[in-house]
Amino acid sequence: MSFFKRWGKFMTVGAGIMAQWEIDNARSILGSRKRIMLIGLLLIPVVIGGLAFADEIAPALPDLLGGKKAYSPAFYSLGIFMVSIAIGIGAGLITGCIGAGGGFIIAPALMSAGIKGILAVGTDLFHIFAKAIMGSVIHRKLGNVSVALAMVFLVGAVMGATAGGVLNRVLYQINPVLSDAFITTVYSLMLGFLGTYALLDFLRCRRAENNACGHGGKSEGAELGGIAKTLQAMNIPPMVGFDQDLTPGGRRISWVFLVLSGALVGMAAGIMGVGGGFLTFPIFVYVLGVSSMTTVGTDIFQIVFTAGFASISQYAIYGFIFYTLAMGMLVGSLLGIQMGALVTKVVPGITIRGFYAMAVLAGFMNRIFALPGKLGEMGVIPVSPALGSILNDIGIWAFFIVIGGFSVWVIGTFLKNIPVLKQEVL
Fold it and tell me: Of 38, 83, 244, 392, which sees the most CB atoms within 10 A?
């Protein structure tokens, strides 16, 4: 039980760090006219494609942009673009308001909208990469990046992302249903674990009346835990130094553990399409013993390169991204994050915790109810197509009702409290 609580806390803190990066990115993009103009330029293919399909006089979009031979849905349409904006808004509202977990719902939401799992993963990674490049938040945080630490870590991240991408593509070539089942299983396990911890944490905080319920994480890593001490004591050269400015003499750790950690994060990014940032913080701080200041900067650094490498080398060049969907999610998430972040100023923290648990568990229910139908299609378990379809529909409706209800509540709260929020800003 203590292991469950410890790793649940670690993953929650990591998701919070990832959410803060998303919020900073959104503010950086929307605060610059040049970056807003860049988004406008990136949307030109979407507009051209919409006119082409509406009038049927212009040539179809290339496959990589969502042409008629794109994997799924059938091809680009205004309807699916609007769905991608809605998904981006929902994920952005969760990220901005809850402060964690918004990215976890994107792949399940895309798959529920009829998009193949491998395409959902590739598109999500591309969307993260585009946001990271345009946000350029990394430049503000570079002072906290240990270059040596980051470079060795990225060696493992590149290998892990490659392995994850190859695994997804091989499974897809064997059987597209097998690929969907694999991605669905991974998401079910991760969301089930994190959602259960978040629910128990919410109930604990409600009983404690909000006492000692902050996730924190800002000062973690000042004191080394047992695992970190053991790993740093292992002298397997070459040793990599870091935190020289934060602790007397700095700290050192073997490159082996950095490469292995990077491989784990990269594989998670390559398989799930979430950037891997939610794992970097807990691994660095609680396992490797890196200070949280250095970890945050290095996490941002690795997200840019890991997401960029994985999305382009493992998915884009093979046709497994849907450009128009990525742009729709980008636009939607930028709006949702800003609105959600403002709502936190007028909503009790315990309420936000409850919504976080509910959102993550909704993603879990969505994927776990989709799994029997996929396993039945492959003949792994005796589930009829009719029953599999019913279970899948239950998961889809439950998911979108919860996320849609949450979105309506956040937007309604935002509109209701505009006068209060104006005073906060002023």
Answer: 83
Q: For residue 397, how many C-alpha atoms fall within 13 Å in the half-sphere facing its CB?
A: 6
In sequence order, the 6+-apart residues with CB closer than 8 A to the CB of 403 are: 90, 94, 105, 109, 359, 362
For the chain, the C-alpha Rg in angstroms (whole number) is 21
**Tokens at 65, concatenated:** 């942009």
- Of all residues in the chain, the percent with pLDDT exceeding 90 is 19
Tell me the pLDDT tens digit for each residue of 166-186.
999 999 999 989 999 999 999
The number of distinct structural domains making up the chain is 1
- Neighbour count for residue 199 (Cβ, 10 Å): 17
List Cα–Cα distances, 303 to 132, 139, 153, 306, in angstroms: 8, 13, 11, 5
Domain span at residue 201 reads 2-425
Other CB atoms closer than 10 Å to residue 415's CB: what's the count? 10
Give the 3-state secondary structure of the chain: CHHHHHHHHHHHHHHHHHHHHHHHHHHHHHCCHHHHHHHHHHCHHHHHHHHHHHHCCCCCCCHHHCCCCCCCCCCCCHHHHHHHHHHHHHHHHHHHHHCCCHHHHHHHHHHHCCCCHHHHHHHHHHHHHHHHHHHCCHHHHHHHCCHHHHHHHHHHHHHHHHHHHHHHHHHHHHCHHHHHHHHHHHHHHHHHHHHHHHHHHHHHHHHCCCCCCCCCCCCCCCCCCHHHHHHHHCCCCCEEEECCCCCCCCEEEEHHHHHHHHHHHHHHHHHHCCCCHHHHHHHHHHHHCCCHHHHHHHHHHHHHHHHHHHHHHHHHHHCCCCHHHHHHHHHHHHHHHHHHHHHCCCCCHHHHHHHHHHHHHHHHHHHHHHHHHHHHHCCCCCCCHHHHHHHHHHHHHHHHHHHHHHHHHHHHHHHHCHHHHHHHHC
Beta bridge partners of 251: 242
Least confident stretch, 73-77, 157-161, 363-367, 403-407: 73-77
Q: How far apart are CA 299 and CA 46, in angstroms?
A: 31
